[in-house]
Design brief:
This protein is α/β, with parallel strands linked by helices and 316 residues long. The protein has helices at residues 18-28, 47-61, 108-118, 132-140, 170-174, 176-184, 194-197, 205-209, 216-236, 244-253, 300-314; strands at 8-14, 33-40, 68-71, 106-107, 123-127, 150-154, 189-192, 202-203, 240-241, 258-263, 265-267, 278-280, 292-298. It has a nine-stranded mixed beta sheet, sandwiched between helices. It has a two-stranded antiparallel ribbon with strand order 8-9. Strand 2 (33-40), helix 2 and strand 3 (68-71) form a beta-alpha-beta unit. The protein is globular, with a radius of gyration of 18 Å.
């Protein structure tokens, strides 16, 4: 008789926009995943708003097992450019969800360190926003990299141009020093670049396939996703949406849908035109050590099916 497989312990580190709400709906109800914590980080929104959004999304979803919540702190330097036009200034399309007042907040980096140390070599960290929190953990405790089970980094580009500058993707651009420190660490890492995260596009048909409003998942996403569709059409001229954070969670739950290669990568931290650019050693005889598995392709139809199936499961 086959022994049941224990769920994979996961921490989601997020700067919550609308796609983060979809990602959390997938992860928090997936029996293959044990989400130990959801830690907030500044990025799409300020640190205070990110913390509030994490709490609001979890309260609205009301999953069977609530994760710990980590509070974000403001970054030392935040760039002027942002992508709030795709998710609203509050990150959630102006939804203005009420949240319960927390008596005690725990900083994201503290929650990360405690969770990893409580289950050494068993926790997968998925950074859906800038890598600020994970880098702070490594500065605080350099030995921690050897205790991470796996780090999945969402961000950068492999061959495509950036989305916030011609050279850089937003997560890398927002805190390039943090991204460099995480990618250079000895942790086992997978990089999910913008090229791959943007390949699956979700048409208006997705709205028809969402769970109905009698479920917490359906009620939340039916309130948030129409704003995202309008923003993508008005701001980018697209008749579909990209849900990068949701695709990243599906990469965690369905790695068979993604093709990866080993590569050596670093992040430009100081370039006037290239800050935040991910640079791969593409020389015929590469001199950099291969430090990541980088996703280079994705089964788009498989991701679409997995997303709909995952949301149906979340709705019960």
């Amino acid at each position: 008789m086959t022994e049941p497989v224990a769920p994979r312990k996961v921490i989601l580190d997020v700067d919550p926009g609308i796609d983060s709400a979809v990602a959390l709906a997938l992860a928090l109800f997936d029996p293959r995943l044990e989400v130990l914590a959801v830690t907030a980080v500044a990025g799409n929104v300020s640190a205070e708003q990110a913390t509030r959004n994490v709490q609001a999304i979890i309260e609205q979803l009301d999953p069977p097992r609530w994760p710990r919540i980590g509070a974000a702190v403001e970054p030392e330097r935040a760039p002027a450019e942002n992508l709030s036009f795709l998710c609203g200034t509050d990150g959630l399309g102006g939804a203005e969800f009420p949240v319960a007042e927390l008596h005690q907040r725990h900083l994201s980096e503290k929650v990360l360190v405690e969770s990893v140390r409580s289950a050494p070599n068993a926790v997968t960290i998925v950074t859906l926003g800038p890598a600020t929190n994970v880098a702070r953990c490594l500065r605080r405790d350099p030995q921690l990299a050897g205790l991470f089970g796996h780090v999945i980094v969402s961000g950068g580009t492999f061959e495509a141009p950036g989305d916030v500058t011609p050279a850089a993707e937003f997560n890398m651009y927002f805190d390039p020093q943090a991204a460099r420190e995480v990618l250079r660490s000895r942790a086992t890492k997978t990089l999910l670049p913008l090229d791959v995260l943007s390949k699956p596009s979700f048409s208006y048909e997705l709205l028809e396939k969402l769970p109905d409003e009698t479920s917490s998942v359906g009620a939340l996403l039916r309130k948030l996703l129409p704003f995202s569709f309008r923003a993508h059409r008005q701001q980018l001229g697209l008749e579909s949406v990209r849900l990068h954070d949701a695709v990243a969670v599906l990469a965690l739950a369905h790695p068979e849908l993604f093709t990866t290669v080993r590569a050596g990568v670093d992040v430009e931290t100081t370039g006037e035109l290239t800050a935040g650019a991910t640079v791969f050693d593409r020389r015929g005889q590469a001199r950099w050590s291969a430090n990541v598995d980088v996703a280079v392709d994705v089964n788009e139809s498989g991701v679409l099916d997995a997303l709909v199936t995952g949301l149906e499961r979340a709705a019960g």
